[in-house]
Amino acid sequence: MLYNLSDNPSILSHYLSEIRDVDIQKDPMRFRLNLARIASILGYEASKKMQYINHDVHTPLGVSNEFKMHDAPVLITILRAGLAMHDGLLHTFDRCESAFVSAYRSHTSKEAFTIEVEYLAAPNLDGRTWIISDPMLASGNSMVEVYKALLKFGKPRKIIVIVAIATPQSIKLVENELPQNTDIWTAAIDPELTSESYIVPGLGDAGDLAFGIKV
């Protein structure tokens, strides 16, 4: 299921406007902070759809009946751009295990490329909720290849995809290629994807803006 939080303006909209702004982008610390904030908010909203159980908490003065998560999700970050979002998700899901996957475009021409997955480190993922984060869901190919690579660690009970910006094309691909029990949470859906698979208006290269231009 798709959850597009740009439908209702909020502080999330403010953070999104800042990561798009070419002047504010000159401050990489601010850019990383805003990505973390966006991820934290999206994670919080996604948490409302998770399963919880009742339990008694003993306070210094009595007992309070509260809710706690039934099963902690695993936070899966696509390197390197997703690292800032991972920090935000850890603020929301502070006791969760983490997995890290490197995925990059290997160009055969200016417009044609394949997705290469190299580094992959993960705990047991079988039967667990996966929260996969990446700033941009452009073509959706990286998300699909990362999902396939992760299957060696087990099959998910549920998948939650958290991105700052998505496109209609990527959403359609993810919905077709990932399991039916996949939710996509995004702060915005941009209308255009160029022939080189860049989002318009987008925000540029999130990894370069957060951590410096790669060579």
CATH topology assignment: Rossmann fold
CATH architecture: 3-Layer(aba) Sandwich
Q: Mind telling me the C-alpha Rg?
A: 18 Å
Low-confidence stretches: none
Total number of strands: 12
Structural class by sheet pairing and helices: alpha/beta
For the largest beta-sheet, the strand count, sense and barrel status come to: 8 strands, mixed
Q: Which range does the strand content fall in?
A: 25-35%
Q: Can you walk through the features of this model?
A:
With 215 residues, this protein is of the alpha/beta class. It has one domain: Rossmann fold, CATH 3.40.50.2020. The protein has helices spanning 11-20, 28-47, 83-92, 141-150, 168-177, 206-211; strands spanning 2-4, 52-59, 62-69, 74-79, 97-107, 113-121, 129-133, 136-137, 158-166, 182-189, 192-193, 199-200. The strands form 3 sheets. Strands 1, 4, 5, 6, 7, 8, 9 and 10 form an 8-stranded mixed β-sheet that branches. A two-stranded antiparallel sheet has the order 2-3. Strands 11-12 form a two-stranded antiparallel sheet. A hairpin with a 2-residue loop joins strand 2 and strand 3 (62-69). Helix 1 packs antiparallel against helix 2 and helix 2 crosses helix 3 (83-92). It is globular, with a radius of gyration of 18 Å. The termini are far apart.
In short:
The protein has helices at residues 11-20, 28-47, 83-92, 141-150, 168-177, 206-211, and strands at 2-4, 52-59, 62-69, 74-79, 97-107, 113-121, 129-133, 136-137, 158-166, 182-189, 192-193, 199-200.
